[in-house]
Amino acid sequence: MSMKERYGTMMDNAFGQYYVLFRKKNALDKEHAVTVAELFGDGKPSVADRQMLRKMLSFGVIKRVNGDYYWLDEKRVENPGAVLKQRLLIIGLAMALALVYCVLMGDFTF
To answer: Is the dihedral of CA 28, 34, 38, 44 positive or negative?
Structure first.
């Protein structure tokens, strides 16, 4: 199993139940975006649910519209490799910036 496949499996295991909620509400584009209250219906979202939604938002799997409305980006769900690449790129850039900062400030020498 490749790293992309493992990452996709990890995302599906973590976010799968939320994918189902978005799909049931047909919140798959901007025009059909829903609030968190609408997404969970009669049930109140737990603290863990809210944290998972924030994590999905940071991964780019769900998108925010007009502040309080969310929709599931199926393209991102179907291509977890792109999510992985984006995350690795951000981590790499952060490490490079930290290295440059240390060199410029004199805290790190070769």
So the answer is: positive
pLDDT tens digits in sequence order for the chain, 110 residues long = 677 677 678 777 888 899 999 999 999 999 999 999 899 887 788 899 899 999 889 888 899 998 889 999 988 888 777 777 777 888 899 999 998 888 888 765 55
State the residue for tokens 């393209």: 75
Model pTM score: 0.71
- Whether 62 and 72 have beta carbons less than 8 Å apart is answered as yes
Rounded Cα distance between 55 and 62, Å, is 9
1's CB contacts (< 8 A; 6+ apart) are 9
Classify burial at 100, counting beta carbons within 10 Å of its beta carbon; exposed 0-12, middle 13-18, buried 19 or more. exposed
Using CA atoms, how far apart are residues 70 and 29, in angstroms rounded to an integer? 9
